[in-house]
């Protein structure tokens, strides 16, 4: 509504101001692109990776500190995610393998990590993602490693033990399930389909709101969204990315039973990240067969004041009833206290391997 203080002439004046700002933004983006190209040339000469998680963290933290708060923080991060993605594409052509298919939550995690200016390739299994990166056919990979409700992704843990690849990044993605369809109202929905895990997460909502709808399983949330786009009266349970990709309407959002459902994804590469001052290190180790040895091994971290954010056991797959332990700790292997803790750990453990080091991320709320 126009007021005396907000006349058409005033609005036009403000729009001209926005046009001037936009022109300045484009000029500065071109300048940034020229600098990125030069950095790319130097990286290629020195054999350095184009993707630098530590540098990206520094950029995100710095621009957040420069903001006066008028532009939303999440929006600022999204803008610079794409600016960095475009800059990387000028430095080198990156191919990122991820556990597919398209429009799944792993696809969304890959977009959050690398933006839309890199080549993203969906693959049908975690093992194929590892293999693709190991062969040099992709520079990095993105796979799920744990879910706050379901626990560890065991296929990923097994591949980490067998591979020479390192973890160089992590992404926490809140899992928001939505009812999506080509239909415009719930009354027209007679069938709901999705991956079995997604259906389990929204079972209560479906009983309350669509008690007469037929529930059918699909190979993936992406396949369910494709079906919903093609068949009248069919709705899928899936992500907003799936809805956007297949041109569907979100009939109901955030319909999962638990609001605390978050999946953690890892970025795979050939080397771990440089330290940022707020890092996480992942290790895997086995222990000797004697009473109290696990307690003694973990004391190596306690004595150095190092916090373990996660620890869990997994069959070693080498000998029956033997186990290895996966642990995440706060700190970086370049820190003296972490070095001392790892050296002490080796006194109790016949096998210790650092799986990676990377900037620590925080889970987001839905």
UniProtKB/TrEMBL annotation:
Alphabetical keyword list: Amino-acid biosynthesis, Aromatic amino acid biosynthesis, Coiled coil, Cytoplasm, Isomerase, Lyase, Multifunctional enzyme, Phenylalanine biosynthesis
Which PROSITE patterns does UniProt cross-reference here? ACT, CHORISMATE_MUT_2, PREPHENATE_DEHYDR_2, PREPHENATE_DEHYDR_3
Q: Please state where this protein is localized.
A: Cytoplasm
Q: Which residues form the Chorismate mutase domain?
A: 5-95
Q: Which GO terms describe its cellular component?
A: cytoplasm
Q: Which GO terms describe its biological process?
A: chorismate metabolic process; L-phenylalanine biosynthetic process
User: Where in this chain does the entry annotate a coiled-coil region?
Assistant: 18-45
Q: What is this protein called?
A: Bifunctional chorismate mutase/prephenate dehydratase
Q: Which organism is it from?
A: Rubrobacter taiwanensis
